[in-house]
């Protein structure tokens, strides 16, 4: 699954620089995650770095974007090959 940022986001800016895929950016009101770039840090780290640094715990799995670890690893290979 890709991750998503909920309305509880306080725009603290700590998650964006932690994303190794550049999937996090400032949205109109809160930060957003591009599901096409989010691999939950598979291929880079054991755990999603944005979740680790988020002070308000507002980055859950996106239930509309279910992906297996294998699919996330495939996405990682595509992203890093570009």
From TrEMBL:
Q: Report the Pfam families cross-referenced here.
A: Fer4_7
The record's keywords, sorted A to Z, are:
4Fe-4S, Electron transport, Iron, Iron-sulfur, Metal-binding, Repeat, Transport
Domain of life the protein comes from: Bacteria
Q: Is this entry keyworded DNA damage?
A: no
| Gene Ontology MF terms in the entry | 4 iron, 4 sulfur cluster binding; metal ion binding
Look up keyword Translocase and say if it applies.
Answer: no
Question: Which segments constitute the 4Fe-4S ferredoxin-type domain?
Answer: 1-29, 31-64
Q: Name one cellular component (GO) term.
A: cytoplasm
Check the record and name the Gene3D superfamilies matching this protein: 3.30.70.20
Protein's name in the database: Ferredoxin
Top-down, what is the taxonomic lineage of the species of origin? Answer: Bacteria, Pseudomonadati, Pseudomonadota, Gammaproteobacteria, Oceanospirillales
């Amino acid at each position: 699954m890709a991750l998503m940022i909920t309305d509880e986001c306080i725009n603290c800016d700590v998650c964006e620089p932690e994303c190794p895929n550049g999937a996090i950016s400032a949205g109109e009101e809160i930060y957003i995650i591009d599901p096409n770039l989010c691999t939950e840090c598979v291929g880079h780290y054991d755990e999603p770095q944005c979740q680790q640094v988020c002070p308000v715990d507002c980055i859950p799995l996106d239930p509309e974007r279910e992906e297996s670890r294998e699919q996330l690893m495939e996405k990682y290979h595509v992203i890093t090959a570009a």
